[in-house]
Amino acid sequence: MDNKHEILQLLRSVASGDTSPEQALLEFKQSPFEDLGYAKVDFHRNIRQGAAEVLYGAGKTPEQIIGIASAMGERGCRNILITRMEADAARQVADALPLEYHPSPRLGIAFPGPRTSLGNIVVATGGTSDMPVAEEAALTAEAMGNQVTRLYDVGVAGLHRLLSRLDVLMSARCVVAVAGMEGALASVVGGLVDCPVIAVPTSVGYGASFGGLSALLSMLNSCASGTSVVNIDNGFGAGYLASMINQMEGLEES
């Protein structure tokens, strides 16, 4: 079973008498995962969590990525996220299966297909240098079926740039604030909006920024309520969490 819709179809088929309970049980037994030797591909991730398994590309060979993504594609999975995949590996993967690759955030989407566009997530950055992390967040959220609005280079060094887009910020269901240096953007945004803010510290900064640690600590110590923080440069984690928040609000509205 690839998703909740297919499971519901199977259960309705059992209820109508078109499928026997024994046949349905066999379907479920065959579904949970496939053992490829180097990976156990979790086909029930979508059922449990609402999104298919995501491949972490760093440390995997192109052959392993191809094997895992192909197994998922054969089960009908679409828009399979592959994070932290280098360009050389992406070229080899693209030769073997359909792939949409974005070099700046090093993110691939295997077997790209139609996507819904629910709600509105805003992804904002303090500076242009934060864009690779922000794009990882934005593309993750889009692949998971969300509408994303990008507000790039609106940091506190020129606060009027952010304030000129208050209409966009205040209509968001969730804001992802991506910033390095002292990480002040998240606190500013958190003081302006009535929705959850996900702060993403980046490793952008001079000298004693300690690879993003200074931004991380600033965001953790934010006085703005309703702000959560993910790890340094973790755009994927922020995009995934933003999607969950956005889609939960969408269910409540419907």
TrEMBL record:
Domain PurE: 119-251
SMART domains per UniProt: AIRC (SM01001)
SUPFAM superfamilies attached to this UniProt entry: N5-CAIR mutase (phosphoribosylaminoimidazole carboxylase, PurE) (SSF52255)
Annotated NCBIfam families: LarB
Protein name: Nickel pincer cofactor biosynthesis protein LarB
Organism for this UniProt entry: Pseudoflavonifractor hominis
